[in-house]
Design goal:
Layout (H helix, E strand, L loop, with lengths): L2 H24 L9 H8 L5 H14 L5 H9 L6 H11 L5 H8 L4 H34 L13 H17 L10 H29 L2 H9 L5 H5 L3 H21 L1 H9 L6 H17 L2 H12 L8 H8 L3 H46 L2 H30 L5 H12 L3 H9 L5 H29 L3 H5 L20 H23 L4 H11 L16 E3 L1 H12 L1 H14 L11 H15 L1 H9 L2 E3 L4 H76 L6 H33 L7 E4 H18 L3 E4 L6 E4 L1 H18 L6 E8 L3 E8 L33 H11 L4 E3 L7 E8 L2
Parallel strand pairs: 4-6
Antiparallel strand pairs: 1-2, 3-5, 6-7, 7-9, 8-9
């Protein structure tokens, strides 16, 4: 392909990325930008050119040794809910803008530690960026068939212009805001888009090679299995390889947290913590898909080319071998996408660290204090822009100097091992509050020194001297100091060897110095916040341990220098409103000190923010005893607040219960009044009848017809019986409700009890020509009070007779056995029960709205007494719903 054509394609592709980034910045609140899928795909910036090309080279030459670099992140993903969520929470609380800020803040905003972390990240990231440039350069040469051409000038080197374009892109979208803690939605959207492209293109070329150039995975396997040394490609070579795998998995586990680009996308660009729930399974799935075809592409390339070409670029060489330029171009764009996303995010993260932890705190703070906010904002942006260009140009020169000596895989591992030196200070500091800044600094310096001696120095000397004497004989010819076999450990690969020794001494120094040296009050304060971040979320401003004198006016002047008059005043107004302080407060407290430092952290970094605020504060040193006392008081406040909240909730529940009880008492009182009124009414009715009939008999002469006298006497007798029944029912009901009625429970036959009741009511039913049916003739015995159950059945049958139509009525009594109870039912074909009355018919004196105008005979207490008797037997009673004709009332009696 013509090189101008390829450059044109690159420019068009970059224009598309610019457009996507611009659109995402413009529509920053859209759900298309803020969702867990974009967040997860941005995490795939981990898959750089090393993944896209380097893994295939390793698979072709050494087999499955490429897998540990992906197993580490897969193992780490489930732990994100515990570790990464905590990191995100702390970073949002304190407006963290980089991993250097995060680590230095943990150790009391230690300026030197922030600068040291930045240097480590710089030294670890520059080789990685050079790796990407190397991949672009070599793939460009393959695509344009210019492998024989060697550029003698930078201006003739295409890679230089690619690096320049990447720097411009990162500068344009990464330095629009001075507050580095704000989200870069344009860059994240473009990175997510590139993650989709590089995966899709990789799957396309994998499918093409596996199923088009070869006859599937089985065909490739059968052919490669016949080659010599095949067994070495699919197995581990003893214990040595096992150790290498363990170290590589540990290395990649740390890298997924510590690489500046991963910290940027996973922590700083996180909009919502809940996005982690999607990422913990979707990101491992992405890595799995990316590695499905790696082995088969490597074997296919090996079968096609042998050892005649660079195995890292089989994905390009195989389609070009078949003259499929279009497919090769897609692969090139996929690799270019991997390069762009890695370089842009890395330079963005690194430029913020260089600006906030090196340049500003070590030389530019005085100049910032003297200038106006607009000029300061311009200075900050320019510093970051210069940093981006400096980083990429440095990486370009590293690529020129060492690209021929090192593979993509080797360069990537060097970066990982250097970055891993931050692990003890980072991970242990999250969960152990004893760690001190002195321990963190010592550990990082010692660890990096060992990495330099065992990994960086050997290949540097070999590149410049052309000999490997240092590797073979060690320093001054001492065998124990061989860089690849330090103290006789010679069975590990150089990266694993460097990682083992550096991490061993790093962790040892960290633990020893933490236990032997006490951190100052500020370190202990932030250590408590980090370790116990969940409990300090609500008290983060007041939890700062501080003792001294400061004026609001002085702090405001510092804020104005960087935020401007309006932003500074608005921030202070919010602070005073939040803590209910007067707007004219003059003396600052610990909360305002902490609040102000956080405001400045996003712009100039935590170390510089501390220096600036300290410049206007007369601070007194606090002893460790005082720190511990203050922190314990803070914890006591947390505990007390928690207890008060629990007590408040309990009181609220009790108050709610009291209200419910009060309502119930009022309701019962009202029911009592209604009950007494109804009883009085029910008693008055028969008494009135008796009195009226008696007066008529007394006033009339003896010539009253005998039939009339007999009728009056009959009425008196009926009303007397009704009055007696009513009094009897009231007494029964009162005994049942107060629990004074004792049951005479005996072992009885329910069939005989039903027969007795039917026999006693047969004459009443016969008057209306109503048929009574005893459906179940079988005998069954259980324990119950026969008199009371007969009373229940009598009430139910009497009601059924009352509401059945004469000459047509049929009433059926039946019982069935359940697992632990017997179920007795009384069914009639009478007028039935209205649906709205089902829930109320067992209430005392309840009268249906649909009953006849002539009130049925009865006391109105029968069903209420029936319910009480059944419940006294530990049973239940109800009216069956959904009965079309008549009514069915059912009650249960337990066997036990």
């Amino acid at each position: 392909m013509n090189n101008y054509t390829l450059v044109f394609i690159i420019i068009i592709y970059l224009a598309v990325l610019f457009f996507i980034a611009f659109l995402a910045e413009k529509k920053g609140q859209s759900k298309w930008v803020n969702n867990p899928y974009v967040y997860t795909l941005s995490l795939a910036v981990y898959c750089s050119a090393w993944t896209y090309y380097g893994s295939i080279g390793i698979a072709a030459n050494t087999g499955i040794d490429f897998l540990p670099i992906y197993l580490g992140p897969v193992i780490a993903a489930p732990l994100w809910i515990l570790i990464l969520r905590k990191i995100i929470r702390i970073s949002k609380q304190h407006k963290i803008s980089s991993i250097a800020d995060f680590i230095s803040l943990r150790y009391g905003n230690n300026r030197f530690l922030g600068a040291l972390v930045t240097l480590i990240c710089f030294l670890g990231t520059v080789p990685y960026i050079s790796l990407q440039l190397k991949a672009v350069s070599e793939t460009f040469e393959i695509m344009t068939d210019e492998t024989s051409y060697i550029s003698t000038s930078i201006l003739d080197d295409t890679t230089f212009y690619v690096a320049l374009i990447l720097a411009i892109f990162a500068t344009f979208f990464g330095t629009q805001k001075t507050d580095a803690s704000e989200k870069h939605k344009g860059i994240i959207a473009s990175v997510a888009f590139e993650s989709v492209l590089k995966l899709v293109f990789f799957l396309i070329i994998g499918s093409y090679i596996t199923f088009y150039l070869f006859d599937g995975t089985t065909d490739i396997y059968c052919q490669i299995s016949k080659t010599e040394n095949f067994k070495q490609l699919i197995t581990l070579n003893g214990v040595e390889d096992g150790f290498n795998w363990v170290f590589m998995i540990s290395l990649s586990f740390m890298a997924i947290f510590l690489l500046p680009r991963q910290f940027q996308v996973s922590v700083l660009e996180n909009n919502r913590e809940k996005h982690l729930k999607k990422a913990i399974w979707l990101f491992p799935l992405y890595l799995l898909l990316f590695n499905i075809f790696v082995v088969f592409i490597a074997w296919a390339g090996k079968l096609t080319f042998g050892n005649s070409v660079n195995a890292e670029y089989y994905t390009l060489l195989l389609p070009l071998e078949q003259n499929h330029s279009f497919l090769a171009t897609l692969v090139f764009l996929g690799g270019f996408s991997a390069v762009i996303s890695m370089v842009i995010v890395s330079t963005l993260a690194l430029s913020t660290m260089v600006s906030n932890n090196l340049i500003i705190p070590y030389g530019f703070l005085d100049k910032f204090i003297q200038n106006q906010p607009e000029r300061n904002e311009k200075y900050i942006k320019n510093i970051r822009r210069i940093s981006i260009f400096t980083i990429i140009i440095t990486a370009y020169f590293f690529y020129i100097s060492f690209s021929k000596e090192l593979s993509l895989y080797s360069i990537g591992l060097i970066s990982f091992v250097i970055i891993a030196q931050l692990a003890p200070a980072f991970f242990i500091g999250l969960f152990w509050n004893r760690g001190s800044s002195k321990a963190a600094i010592t550990g990082v310096i010692v660890g990096f020194s060992i990495v330099f001696y065992t990994l960086i120095l050997p290949f540097t000397l070999q590149a410049y001297t052309g000999t490997d004497d240092f590797i073979q004989y060690g320093l001054n010819g001492i065998p124990a100091l061989k860089p690849y076999a330090l103290f006789g450990i010679d069975f590990l690969s150089p990266p694993s060897h460097a990682f083992f020794w550096s991490m061993s001494f790093n962790i040892l120094c960290y633990l020893v110095f933490s236990l032997t040296s006490k951190g100052n009050y500020r370190e202990r304060n932030y250590a408590e916040m980090y370790v116990d971040s969940k409990n300090f979320t609500k008290l983060q401003d007041s939890a700062l341990v501080w003792k001294g004198e400061a004026y609001v006016a002085d702090i405001k002047n510092v804020l104005i220098r960087f935020l401007g008059e309006k932003k500074a005043q608005r921030a202070l107004n919010i602070f005073f409103t939040k803590y209910k302080l007067p707007q004219d407060t003059q003396l600052a407290d610990a909360r305002l000190i902490n609040f102000s430092e956080k405001l400045l952290t996003g712009n100039i970094g935590s170390a510089s923010a501390k220096i600036l605020i300290s410049s206007v504060v007369k601070e007194e040193q606090i002893s460790l005893v005082e720190v511990l006392k203050i922190l314990e008081e803070s914890k006591e406040h947390v505990v007390n607040n928690k207890m008060l909240l629990e007590k408040s909730n309990e009181l609220s529940k009790l108050s709610s219960k009291l209200k419910d009880v009060n309502k119930e008492l009022i309701s019962k009182d009202k029911q009592k009044d209604e009950f007494l009124d109804t009883v009085a009414h029910e008693l008055k009715t028969p008494i009135t009848g008796i009195r009226a009939a008696t007066e008529l008999l007394m006033d009339e002469d003896d010539d009253m017809p005998k039939e009339v006298k007999r009728q009056f006497l009959k009425n008196i007798l009926q009303d007397s019986d009704r009055l007696g029944r009513l009094i009897h029912n009231i007494l029964d009901f009162e005994k049942l409700e107060t629990g004074r009625l004792n049951l005479d429970v005996q072992y009885q036959d329910i069939q005989k009890t039903i027969t007795k009741v039917i026999t006693s009511l047969a004459h009443i039913a016969s008057k209306k020509d109503i048929k009574l049916v005893n459906k179940n003739p079988h005998t069954f015995k259980l324990y119950y009070d026969e008199d009371r159950i007969m009373q229940v059945l009598t009430n139910l049958l009497s009601n059924a007779i009352k509401f059945c139509e004469a000459n047509k009525g049929v009433i059926t009594v039946d019982y069935k056995l359940g697992n632990e109870y017997i179920k007795v039912s009384v069914t009639d074909n009478g007028k039935g029960i209205p649906e709205e009355d089902h829930d109320y018919i067992f209430d005392k004196f309840y009268q249906s709205k649909h009953q006849n105008t002539i009130k049925p005979q009865g006391s109105g207490l029968g069903l209420a007494i029936t319910k009480q008797i059944i419940e006294k037997h530990q049973g239940k009673i109800w009216a069956k719903k959904g009965v079309k004709n008549g009514a069915t009332l059912v009650f249960t009696l337990p066997f036990k």
